[in-house]
Amino acid sequence: MRKVKGRYFCYVLTFFFYFMAMSLFGSVLSVYLTGIGKSASEMSFIISASGLFSFAMVPAVGYLNDLTRRPKLISGMLLLGVGVLGLVFAVCRSTWALFLLDGLIMSFINSLMPITERMAGQSKYRYGSLRVWGTLGYAVGAQCAGVAVEFFPPMVLFAAMFISCALTIVGFLGTEEKGEDEPAEKPGKKKLPLSSLVQNKQFLLYVFVAFLFAGCSGVNMNLAPVLLGSLGVATGMVGTVLFFSTLIEIPLILFSNKYMDKFSGKALMLTSFAVITVQFVFYGFARSAVVVVAVMVLLKAVASTLFQMITLKMVRNLLSPALTTTGLSVINSLNSVSIILLQNAGGFVTDRWNIQVLYLCLAVLTAVGMLLALRLPACKEEKVFS
Predict the structure, then answer these.
(1) How many angstroms separate the CA atoms of 34 and 98, rounded?
(2) pLDDT of res. 183
(3) Burial class of residue 20, CB neighbours in 10 A (0-12, 13-18, 19+)
(4) Which residues of the chain are modeled with pLDDT < 70?
(5) The pTM is what?
(6) Which of helix, strand or coil describes residue 38?
(7) Which residues contact 227 (CB under 8 A, 6 or more apart)?
């Protein structure tokens, strides 16, 4: 292992199979649940467990990682848990049991995200050259998940997820991270009061704007396969559509240093809201599978990928550097709550009317978010991606 420690291949293995495991479980989960007889409201209830459990699990794991400085051990345990619980998920049919399992699996997966992001940011390789492998892994996972759900027993899908988790652990063992063994906090370092977050009105405005965006985006992520299925798209083709829509992330991530610091955070946020609102309007009115597929491939990943990078940019500009991690954690936790609320409301609307009506409701919410985003500060001073 010492001979390969720190090699680029180890990072490729880590990012590719981590995101592949995430995609294998989450990309067509809504289709899988409806396929085993769950109603739209039951499916939304089960999926909402992700946000509920992540609200508590993500900050707890982040604190534990900062406290112990053992990212590989913590990541290995979480990945092993994901793989084993996934196999249990495959044979379970109880709605409450599936709710519990989904919450644990997705909260474990989401808890790994800050660890991988920190690893990519502090490695000797450029962030984009590592993170792009995650995009490819997610795309391949979506394609494989669609095929597995349509043509094979459920155990095949979840066995593939278990193997992906195992390979991610292998990759993690070969990575290096600068400062991994340093103490969590240097002696004498001045800590800023958390009350400064509450007193920062501009930050609170962005938190609410992000709350609306993340909730709508999360519902879209979960229900896009159901929308395609309602238009007659086969499950195997759903995976193909998600595969190509994910590939759009590649140039956005690779060339983020070319545009993210040239435009203000406010302008980028408005762009994201405009893109996602246009999507929802098309999904609400279009009855042609070809039109919906084209819009999904071209736009689905643009808004969500931009939002992830915009959040980092806005927090870095709105808060002191000492509170950057705390600010990101607050936003991520509240975004989980947003997804819970809108996911369950979305299930009710879909059962009561149809999924097209749901997307028109989401379009109204994102339009409100865009109006609120007009009041955000420019946030262009701090250079983050250059």
Answers:
(1) 13
(2) 46
(3) buried
(4) 1-4, 66, 121-122, 177-196, 322, 324-326, 384-386
(5) 0.74
(6) coil
(7) 283, 292, 355, 359
